[in-house]
Amino acid sequence: MSATIMYGNLLANQIREEIKAEVEALKQSSVHPKLTVLIIGHNPASKTYVRMKQKACEKVGIVSQVIELEEDISEEELLYQIEKLNKDTNVHGILVQLPLPNHINEDRVLEFINPNKDVDGFHPINIGRMQIGQDALIPCTPLGIMKLLEFYRVETKGKHAVVVGRSNIVGKPIGQLLLNQDATVTYCHSKTENLSDITKQADILIVATGKANTIQAADVKVGATIVDVGNTFLEHGGVIGDVDFEAVKEKVERITPVPKGVGPMTITMLLHNTIKVASHFKQ
Ligand SMILES: Nc1nc(=O)c2c([nH]1)NC[C@@H]1CN(c3ccc(C(=O)N[C@@H](CCC(=O)O)C(=O)O)cc3)C=[N+]21
């Protein structure tokens, strides 16, 4: 039996068509959805991601503005830029591209964004709302993964979901969303002992370590569903995930590829969150 490859780009394209129609409808009621991205410094990966976000916005008719700020900008100046966007009624979504330079306090910056415009879903208010199951802006990668699991009819209720990686932007929130959908969730991380013993028990395995080859064929259960969140850029071009895809796919029921797996869903959920905010501006 060969695995189903869960192509995020196919579902992403389908959802983007729906979003495009919703943007059209919003424009009919004089709301022009707009996303503003702040990018600080010259991280090449950040530039690539921001360009992808801009292009995706353009394709569905969302206005995208990118504000490029110098690497040595002060935290106060950055907060001032955010404050202007918080107040600007034409701006629906605000995204501060991460990582930030070391001299800037990331927590302070993320908390400064108006939670109702926080299309990344990184504000403590949104994290709290999500945790208690209230309506919230949900982080894009976890939300994209949930949509992908739903599309491929992956049962979560009562299943053992193992999350490898505990970042605030992927690991922690995807575990919470799976729990909210009645999965039994185990978190693993860099200090976990006997990692393989735990990942082998997973019905659903989410791998978000940012390290290539974290998961090999021996680390998965036959028939499992594997979601690879990794995005490591190779020196000579190309991008790979955290899972040894070729070997693992022979053993499992479903697996996401990299590229064309989770990544395109992340960007699509950014568009989704932006029109979610914009639709609140409709009278
Ligand atoms: N405030 C903030 N929000 C983010 O959402 C955010 C961030 N900072 N910092 C960096 C990470 C990373 N991230 C990705 C988005 C798309 C792909 C993606 O689409 N990747 C392609 C491959 C890359 C390519 O084709 O060049 C794919 O998987 O098919 C990957 C990674 C968003 N991030």
Salient structural properties:
283 residues, alpha/beta, Rossmann fold, 2 domains, 6-stranded parallel β-sheet, 11 strands, globular, binds 5,10-Methenyltetrahydrofolate
Verbal overview:
This protein is an alpha/beta fold. The chain has helices at 8-28, 44-60, 75-87, 106-112, 124-131, 140-151, 171-180, 195-199, 245-248, 262-279, and strands at residues 4-5, 34-40, 63-69, 93-96, 160-164, 184-188, 204-207, 225-228, 232-233, 239-240, 254-255. The strands form three sheets. The protein has a six-stranded parallel beta sheet. The mean pLDDT is 97. The protein binds 5,10-Methenyltetrahydrofolate. 5,10-Methenyltetrahydrofolate (GUE) binds next to helix 2, strand 4 and helix 10.
How many E-type strands?
11
The backbone outline, from C-alpha atoms, is: globular
Q: Which ligands are bound?
A: 5,10-Methenyltetrahydrofolate
Helix content: 40-55%
| Tally of separate domains | 2
Spatial sequence of strands, sheet with the most strands: 1-11-8-7-5-6
How would a textbook summarize the main sheet?
A: 6 strands, parallel
Q: What structural class do the secondary elements suggest?
A: alpha/beta
* Measured distance between first and last alpha carbons: 53 Å
SSE pattern: EHEHEHEHHHEHEHEEEEHEH
- Regions with little confidence, pLDDT below 50 for 5+ residues: none
By CATH's scheme, which homologous superfamily of the largest domain applies? Answer: NAD(P)-binding Rossmann-like Domain
Rounded radius of gyration (Å): 19 Å
The CATH architecture classification of the largest domain is 3-Layer(aba) Sandwich
CATH class division of the largest domain: Alpha Beta
Average pLDDT rating: 97
CATH topology of the largest domain: Rossmann fold
Approximate strand percentage = 15-25%
The number of helices is 10
Family: Belongs to the tetrahydrofolate dehydrogenase/cyclohydrolase family.
Keywords: Amino-acid biosynthesis, Histidine biosynthesis, Hydrolase, Methionine biosynthesis, Multifunctional enzyme, NADP, One-carbon metabolism, Oxidoreductase, Purine biosynthesis
Subunit structure: Homodimer.
Catalytic activity: (6R)-5,10-methylene-5,6,7,8-tetrahydrofolate + NADP(+) = (6R)-5,10-methenyltetrahydrofolate + NADPH; (6R)-5,10-methenyltetrahydrofolate + H2O = (6R)-10-formyltetrahydrofolate + H(+)
